[in-house]
Amino acid sequence: MSRTTMSFEEARARLESAGQTHVLRFWSELSAEEREAFMGELSQLDADELSLHCRTASEAARASGGERPVARMEPVPPEFIGSVRKSGQQTLKEWEDEGFLQIAQNKVAVLLLAGGQGTRLGVPYPKGMYNVGLPTGKTLYQIQAERIRKVQELASVKYDLKCTVPWYIMTSEFTLEPTETFFKESNYFGLDPSDVVMFEQRMIPAVDFNGKIMLEKKNKLAMAPDGNGGLYRALVDNKILEDMERRGVQYLHVYCNGADCGAKVVEKAYPTEPVGVVCRVEGVYQVVEYSELKPELTEQRHPGGELVYSAGNICNHFFTRDFLRDVAQQFEGKLKQHVAIKKVPFVDEEGNLVKPTKPNGIKMEKFVFDVFQFAKKFVAFEVVREDEFSPLKNADGAPVDTPTTVKRSLLAQHYRWAVQAGARFLDEDENPIEPKHRAVQDGELPVLCEISPLVSYSGEVRDLYASGLYYFKWV
């Protein structure tokens, strides 16, 4: 992808070779400033890549109408699935100790995929800036930042080593600037700014059903992020792998088990839950989206009643740095392109902005989990839904996955921690409130209890007690 601004003649020749000269039809109406901005955008397009992208998009869209059966699909073998529920306390402690050791030795980093906006939540800013309504008003970014600070502290104390967990945040053209501004205004939530590395994923043009690039403005292409699978190219474009190597980072989102690639999963709540399934297809590991699963597979059960395809993908993965390097250098070009048929605002032949009422364009994207097939050793690890999975997808008013359900999940988790630590709750008359040892996520809690990540990372009793968080009063 070129980064040098080119002349009009060069741009026209490049577009002509890709069959896309129509995007220049308003050139004579543009100001000098608008022309310069447009040339800057066009100079980033490679003619061969552009031609292939437009052709692939239109062909894939035409082919996506029919059912795509999943052949030779089978669940992940039991020996390649770890589980919190099914593991003994000693085993869990050994895994935890190993994780803290790697953190203490500065070998672990966190990588957040933050290229999307909060459009489905009804807000014009990145989802990480969203406040789900916790009593403290903390945003998702602040919660994550404070969890990083706490896990650094826990590892440092446990092994008497000063350590840092770098935070890599992949943004997009839409989210980079507001995210940077938000972090600066929030003083990086107490993290060292040099340890928060933001980088931008690639943007690719949206095309119509005839394979023609669409215009967002007379001097701007309609662009979209290339999906969370754009991570692997972005790691190279932005020299992130080099930064990781310089820092000594070996693991991304730690789960140390000898694998080079892993995925956290939760047991599906019900057969048709809209989450992808981690499984094997024709002998290789991958995620099959819920929309691609045949009903008979979705409903299939073991003799004991458990779902056969129960490993729900929660987009929470583990990679070694070496594996990321191999994917970026050898396999990125082999990742599957997924078709998304969208309503794309565009400029019509007369130069008027049109906001379509039905899908009119094609956006191509890659998925981060499509690299599982390239792993030398892949494992899945089943975690407890109540502790690790409460997705935020929809605005309040939807039945599931809303700010209200996320807030309830967090408060329910913190309530469980407090009860397990021996906390006592008092009502407004100083009378004890009987604890519910199995607080239901979907029900109303007897009290509102929010625990800062700076106090406890995962319900450590010692830290809760030391903080003085032993008596809670109803307010």
From TrEMBL:
BP GO annotations: UDP-N-acetylglucosamine biosynthetic process
UniProt keyword list: Nucleotidyltransferase, Transferase
Family: Belongs to the UDPGP type 1 family.
CDD domains: UDPGlcNAc_PPase (cd04193)
Protein's name in the database: UDP-N-acetylglucosamine pyrophosphorylase 1 like 1
InterPro entries tied to this protein: Nucleotide-diphossugar_trans, UDP-sugar_pyrophosphorylase, UDPGP_fam
GO MF term (any one): UDP-N-acetylglucosamine diphosphorylase activity
Domain of life per record: Eukaryota
Species annotation: Electrophorus electricus (Electric eel)
